[in-house]
């Protein structure tokens, strides 16, 4: 493109190319989604693996499978594996998506474990649950897998690596009937479900806003006994709607640079798996609304309780202040409920190490290459030092690596449970739990039988196919809109004509576009902040009554904050890290 062309003409020419390139990327996303579904939605692993155990062979059975990582493409990270090293068992979360985030790319939890010389096993699950599959069946399957790996490596105990919901599932497996491992690493894993900070962690209030477990029960009934994971993924997106804007706007701003990264992530993000009715109801009733794990009230198989006080495996708890789904409150708040004092923890013979990140988000804990190379590699590199520490509570702080490519150093600072700055949840959560049970009982007795009578498997499948999370992707397929087949040719024609401007960052009209986009993002953020403030105020009014003037004051603050956020001169980054002074024991 001639340099003398006016900036506005260059901008519109480049904008036309970016628009076509963006739409063509969305077309590719739809094609990849269709291909992945046609292949049965296998786990999206960067590594080669072989199956070594199947949950269907156990009693009770489940749809989980255990894989052994055999090769890392052309990098051959498997050459670092030492036969005498502790095996690492990565447990993936069951939160709507399929398995894969722990081995999403070379620099991942799996990759770092291989670099550190550990044999690696990966726990995956199939898109469809088994008929009548329960949460207890999953927990017992994980316990059997851990025992299976321990038998294959008798010279050392395995390291269990649990991501998000995979973390609490692995903890439950280790807490009942005296199952053990050498070390358990819980990454962004919620164990104290009512904990959180007002106006920062609104997800903990979702049960109160939706009326409790009955809504999940209803959706599972509409799915003919299967709960569609697309609903969970949709909830994640609605939690931070400005993130959805940033995702597509970032693609439009630079389609060439974002193309591969966007498609790689979206292939995993839009692979929606299902949970069984009994399984999702147990998760919602017992954990997220009932908060019964930290009190040791969850019964796994009719006689063994999932009691956190019975976990004798050393724990590493990795959480982030930038994580609005599993904040440090939910990752660490259970300690004060299970161990009333540091002395009680010492007398129990337990050692717990926590590692805090200041700003990485929930998904970044698992998929960020930077986090993998620093935090996850450090955890695995210092695993033996963690296991050998005297009983107690420690904060793990990382130092710079001695040389490039080496693992970071670590210091373990003794801490006191009494100093953890987590306030106990108020009585409002107890009221929500009781209300949830009452409404779910009514739904179970009077509504559920009618819904099950009305719903057919064919109707459930059709409903799932028309879920908005799927239709927004499939709508960009040539099979839905045949005209989209011209996009690759249009993109190439524009590139041949020189429409693409590689120096767009210096164009004042592109800069104006980016400023307008930022204003839209901040406007969405302002709406989200106001929404979350209203949720907090509504929760207090309905379930944790405070003086009327105090509740009204919170609503006034919400409106003031919304106006402040909407003003460009006073924009605050609501995703910023909590100051160091407010983080646990950061002295």
| Averaged pLDDT | 90
The residue fraction in helices comes out at 40-55%
Question: What are the low-pLDDT stretches, counting only 5+ consecutive residues below 50?
Answer: 557-587
Give the N-terminus to C-terminus distance in angstroms: 56 Å
What does this structure look like?
The protein is of the alpha/beta class. Helices cover 48% and strands 12% of the residues. It contains 22 helices and twelve strands. The chain has a ten-stranded mixed sheet with strand order 1-2-4-3-5-6-9-10-11-12, with helices on both faces. Strands 7-8 form a two-stranded antiparallel ribbon. β5, α4 and β6 form a beta-alpha-beta unit. α1 packs antiparallel against α20 and α21 runs antiparallel to α22. The C terminus is likely disordered.
Put the structure in a nutshell.
Residues 557-587 have low confidence and may be disordered.
Keywords:
587 residues; alpha/beta; ten-stranded mixed β-sheet; two-stranded antiparallel sheet; 22 helices; disordered C terminus
What are the SSEs and their pairings?
Layout: H1 7-38, E1 48-54, E2 64-71, E3 88-91, H2 109-115, E4 120-125, H3 135-152, E5 159-163, H4 165-175, E6 183-187, H5 206-210, H6 214-222, E7 226-228, H7 230-239, H8 241-253, H9 255-269, E8 274-276, H10 277-289, E9 315-320, H11 328-332, H12 334-338, H13 342-347, E10 351-357, H14 362-367, H15 369-381, H16 383-387, E11 392-399, E12 409-415, H17 428-454, H18 457-465, H19 468-474, H20 487-496, H21 508-543, H22 548-566
Parallel strand pairs: 3-4, 3-5, 5-6, 6-9, 9-10, 10-11
Antiparallel strand pairs: 1-2, 2-4, 7-8, 11-12
Helix pairs in contact: 1-9, 1-20, 2-15, 3-4, 6-10, 6-17, 8-9, 8-21, 17-21, 21-22
């Amino acid at each position: 493109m001639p340099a003398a062309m006016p900036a506005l003409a260059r901008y519109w020419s480049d904008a036309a190319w970016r628009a076509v390139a963006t739409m063509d990327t969305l077309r590719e996303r739809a094609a990849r989604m269709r291909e992945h579904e046609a292949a049965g939605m296998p786990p999206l692993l960067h590594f080669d693996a072989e199956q070594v155990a199947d949950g269907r062979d156990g009693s009770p059975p489940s749809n989980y499978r255990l894989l052994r990582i055999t090769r890392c493409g052309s990098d051959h990270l498997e050459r670092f594996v030492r036969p005498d090293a502790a095996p690492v068992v990565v447990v993936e979360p069951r939160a709507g998506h399929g398995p894969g985030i722990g081995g999403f790319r070379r620099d991942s939890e799996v990759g770092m474990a291989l670099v550190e010389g550990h044999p690696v096993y990966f726990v995956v699950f199939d898109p469809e649950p088994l008929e009548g599959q329960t949460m207890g069946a999953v927990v017992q399957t994980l316990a059997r897998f851990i025992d299976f790996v321990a038998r294959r490596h008798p010279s050392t105990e395995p390291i269990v690596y649990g991501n998000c919901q995979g973390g609490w599932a692995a903890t439950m497996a280790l807490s009942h009937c005296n199952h053990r491992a050498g070390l358990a690493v819980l990454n962004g894993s919620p164990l104290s479900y009512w904990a959180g900070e007002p106006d920062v962690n609104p997800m903990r209030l979702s049960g109160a806003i939706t009326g409790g477990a009955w809504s999940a029960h209803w959706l599972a009934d509409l799915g003919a006994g299967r709960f569609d994971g697309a609903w969970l993924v949709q909830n994640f997106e609605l939690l931070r709607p400005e993130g959805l804007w940033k995702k597509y706007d970032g693609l439009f701003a630079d389609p060439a640079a974002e193309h591969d990264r966007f498609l790689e992530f979206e292939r995993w993000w839009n692979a929606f798996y299902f949970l069984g009715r009994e399984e999702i109801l147990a998760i919602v009733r017992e954990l997220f609304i009932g908060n019964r794990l930290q009190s040791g009230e969850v019964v796994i198989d009719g006689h063994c309780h999932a009691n956190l006080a019975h976990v004798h495996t050393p724990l590493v708890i990795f959480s982030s202040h930038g994580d609005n789904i599993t904040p440090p409150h939910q990752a660490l708040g259970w300690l004060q409920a299970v161990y009333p004092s540091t002395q009680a923890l010492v007398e129990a013979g337990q050692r717990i190490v926590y590692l805090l990140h200041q700003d990485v988000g929930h998904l970044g804990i698992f998929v960020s290459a930077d986090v993998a190379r620093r935090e996850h590699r450090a955890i695995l590199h210092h695993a033996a030092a963690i296991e050998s520490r005297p009983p107690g509570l420690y904060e793990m702080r990382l130092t710079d690596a001695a040389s490039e490519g080496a693992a970071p150093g670590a210091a373990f600072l003794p801490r006191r449970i009494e100093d953890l700055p987590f306030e106990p949840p108020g009585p409002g959560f107890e009221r929500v739990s009781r209300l949830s049970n009452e409404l779910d009982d009514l739904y179970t007795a009077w509504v559920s039988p009618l819904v099950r009578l009305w719903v057919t498997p064919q109707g459930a499948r059709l409903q799932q196919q028309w879920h908005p999370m799927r239709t927004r992707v499939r709508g960009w397929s040539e099979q839905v809109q045949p005209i989209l087949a011209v996009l690759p040719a249009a993109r190439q024609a524009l590139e041949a004509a020189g429409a693409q401007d590689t120096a767009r960052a210096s164009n004042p009209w592109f800069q104006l576009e980016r400023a307008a986009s930022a204003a839209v993002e901040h406007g969405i953020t302002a709406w989200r902040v106001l929404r979350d403030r209203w949720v907090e105020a509504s929760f207090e009014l309905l379930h944790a009554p405070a003086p009327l003037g105090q509740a009204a004051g919170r609503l006034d603050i919400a409106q003031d904050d919304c106006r402040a956020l909407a003003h460009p001169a006073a924009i605050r980054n609501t995703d910023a890290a909590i100051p160091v002074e407010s983080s646990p024991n950061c002295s």
